[in-house]
Amino acid sequence: MTKELAVIIDFGGPYTQLIARRIRELKVYCEILPYTVSVTQIQNLQPQALILSGGVKSVSEPEAPAVDTAVYQLGVPILGICYGMQLMARDLGGVVKAAERREYEQTQLVVQAENDLFAGLGKEITVWLGHGDVVVQPPPGFTITAAGPETPVAAMADSAQRFYAVQFHPEVENTPQGSEILENFLFKTAGFAGDWTTEAFIDSTLQDIRAVVGENEQVVCGLSGGVDSSVAAVLVHKAIGDRLTCIFVDHGLLRKDEARQVMETFTKKFNMKVIHVDAAAEFLSKLQGAAEPEQKRKIIGAEFIRVFEREAAKIGKIDYLVQGTVYPDIIESGTPGGTVIKSHHNVGGLPEDLKFKLIEPLSHLFKDEVRRVGEALHIPEEIVWRHPFPGPGLAIRVLGEITEDKLAILREADAIMVEEIKKAGLYRKIWQAFCVLPNIRSVGVLGDKRTYAYTIALRAVTSHDGMTADWYRFPHEVLARISNRIVNEVPHVNRVVFDITAKPPSTIEWE
Ligand code: XMP
């Protein structure tokens, strides 16, 4: 595999990650860098192409993000998208007009001049166009390559320098031929081979890990059963075998059968060294009397670190720690232009002063790419496609004080819900689905007897990233089956309700 790279300079637009994903779908590896990156840093990476992303500001604002104009002297093809186009126009001597309204609409553009970017698309293209600032006069050397009813300069190009720019967003679905436009830029203009595949990623990652970890060095990985840590652990194990030891801290707050499944998968199927720490009793006793959500999180976080360190110390000298960090974690914490503000939940995370070096084999992959790697490594579907599960586990789904009895009720109800969702073929349509045990008992009737028992709340949401979410519109018969089974099969439950709130204003978890 050639080491090809496209660099996306991020000016904070909402679609920057989408540009990266579209490019990677075309089997071209790309990275997102903040606009504050220096030209030397870009040069060191030797990219074959640059993409200037969209942004949320106007290029005429004093604080508008900009990149060092020396990028235009690098001799690599550049594609400017929306804000990226306006910046390119301004930097190279064109004229940009600030618009009063900033709206998006789908519109038709007429291709004005033959050029590589629009090759094979026909005379008219449907695009998703932003009415923010517009270029009124392209820089010297540029020609207008597409125009719309209200946008005379909807695209421009200086083919000799291989500079292209579009006012619209080729990365979104509302630009139906967007992928072809990106394909033209990457393959026709920039000459990429497009050989970045899951298999190629696995091969090069295995080589990298083998090159880093010495013959006598020891590596440890905290396994949670979630997709990221599982894929990271299997990759590292494939690279260095038994020099990797996994530590699976079972805090007793996992779902039904989860611990058994994790252990079976990794020890039997993959033959990995996994230390199963059954710390349920320790965690439960520490949690006694704690009813407040943040207090529970703190207790679990601190206890997790204590148990992990204690187990790691038993292994002896450890040189590396494997972490399942994924690309969005890195981009979100490192891009000054970004508008996404994410508070990172770090329960189950480890302290910064641990004396290990980090191996983060997935740190440049998006979640769907991690899943593809997992599938290619033959990790079972139940793990690869598992819904996200919070570090504190069921502790934040039993509201208020936790008892073993309540955990047992929740586990049973939750297992029924997940089973019915899977049976109905809906599991992959849902971002997260789970049961909550609110601290409520209400009156019911069973046969000729009055009951006074717990309520179970069902929560199921769709989401792209967990930041916002909507409640999932279940077919009623699936809800009916879940409800019937829970009240019939789970003792101490006589009522089932369904949470129909979006995030915001709610959160996904109840605590
Ligand atoms: P909320 O409830 O804030 O959750 O809408 C957003 C996403 O984060 C997960 N979550 C957590 N994950 N530790 C974690 O590791 C936590 O303390 C925590 N709290 C919420 C939640 O399951 C959802 O995916």
Give a structural overview:
Helix 5 crosses helix 6. The longest helix has 23 residues. The two termini are 47 Å apart. The chain contains 14 helices and 21 strands. The chain has 511 residues and is an alpha/beta fold. About 3% of the residues have low confidence. Helix 7 links the parallel strand 13 and strand 14. The structure holds xanthosine-5'-monophosphate. Xanthosine-5'-monophosphate binds next to loops.
Tally of contiguous helical segments = 14
- Total number of β-strand segments? 21
Helix content class: 25-40%
Strand order of the largest sheet: 2-1-3-4-11-10-9-6-7
Oligomer: single chain
Strand content: 15-25%
**CATH architecture assignment name of the largest domain:** 3-Layer(aba) Sandwich
Shape: globular
Provide the CATH superfamily of the largest domain. Answer: HUPs
List the ligand species. Answer: xanthosine-5'-monophosphate
Q: Could you name the CATH class of the largest domain? A: Alpha Beta
Major sheet details: 9 strands, mixed
- Round the Cα radius of gyration to an integer and report it: 26 Å
